[in-house]
Amino acid sequence: MLPSCFSHSAISSTLSNDPIPPPLSIISCIYQTNLFNSPTLLTLTWSLSLSSHSLSLHSSPSASLSASLSTSLSLSPSSFSLFSPTSKSISLHNSHKLKIHWDFSTAKYTPNSAQPISSFYLAISCNGKLQFFLGDLVDEFSRRVKAVVLPEESTLLSRREHVFERRNRYVSRAEFLGSLREIAVELCGGVLKVAVDGEVKLAVKRLAWKFRGNERFFIAGNAVDFFWDVFNWVKSEGGSGPGVFVFQIGEGGVWPEYIGAEGKLMKRSLSSAAAGNVSTPAAAFPALSPAGSSSSVLQWAEESSSDGGRSSCSSSSRSSGINGGFSLSLYAWRKD
């Protein structure tokens, strides 16, 4: 029987026994862009902890890149690069030259978030041509490179955020359907509630039997398919891993790879679950679990996509995937 609110022991994740303190925030976004004039999937993973703040970049192989490309930037206050615009050059095969430019000296963040929301820029040029730009300081970047900058449009396919809380309410503040929105997931009294900008959109009762599932609701007239998996929160002794929640528009987006701090977090949690001989839902570790797992909420999201309710929206980097699809996933971790 489910308690009136999930008890501390019932939803405590494997992170509680980990000697390494959990991060404050990890956010991964995957963009459809061009590098060296070839379509490329670019993953950005922002990570914030008590001791560090970093950004990892990873691009998949493409027609112009025979191998994947990975690098990282330190955004910690102790880093000199944080206080002034700077750049980093990378030489690749076939004499290709990639250059990363960034300025986070005046960046603004929502509380405890690793990803800036304004007053920054991140740019990537390939062989001297700007091919990716993120941020709102276009004029500042133009002055720095002494040229008129016309950023190529990139498309945000999906966003995955890890939220760490000591209570049963998990909040994400993210660009969704063209606006910065507050999306909250709350569990209490055996009920899962989903609220957008303070308005409850969905309430799922009897989670002891409905620990996995999907429902549809609407935001500003746009259909949003919501998928959840809280199996370990209600079925496992001691709990293991995060609760996974997916908000999908249209056909959904492409999931980012696990890189940088996020990759370390997921592998550490998976190892802890294995050491404790506890079942961990494949939903939490789609890239680390055996292929074909029928319990993956991420697979359900792909298989349950419908033609109805598709929507696209425009911004500096559009938050809609191919054919109007976009996915936002929230990994909710309980910490002591």
Can you walk through the features of this model?
Residues 299-325 are annotated as: Disordered. The protein has helices at residues 8-11, 138-145, 231-235, 260-275, 297-303, and strands at 25-35, 38-48, 53-59, 69-74, 86-91, 97-103, 108-109, 116-118, 121-126, 129-135, 154-165, 169-176, 179-188, 191-196, 199-204, 212-219, 222-229, 243-249, 317-318, 326-334. With 336 residues, the chain is mainly β. The protein folds into two domains: 8-21 and 162-334, Lipocalin, CATH 2.40.128.180; 25-156, no CATH class. A hairpin with a 2-residue loop joins strand 14 and strand 15. The longest helix is centred in the last third of the chain and has 16 residues, at 260-275. The model is unreliable at 1-14, 277-295 and 305-322 (pLDDT under 50).
Per DSSP, what share of the residues sits in E-state strands of 2 or more residues? 35-45%
Low-confidence residue ranges = 1-14, 277-295, 305-322
- How would the global form be characterised? globular
CATH names the topology of the largest domain as Lipocalin
Task: Output mean pLDDT.
Answer: 75
Largest sheet, in brief, is: 10 strands, mixed
Number of helices: 5
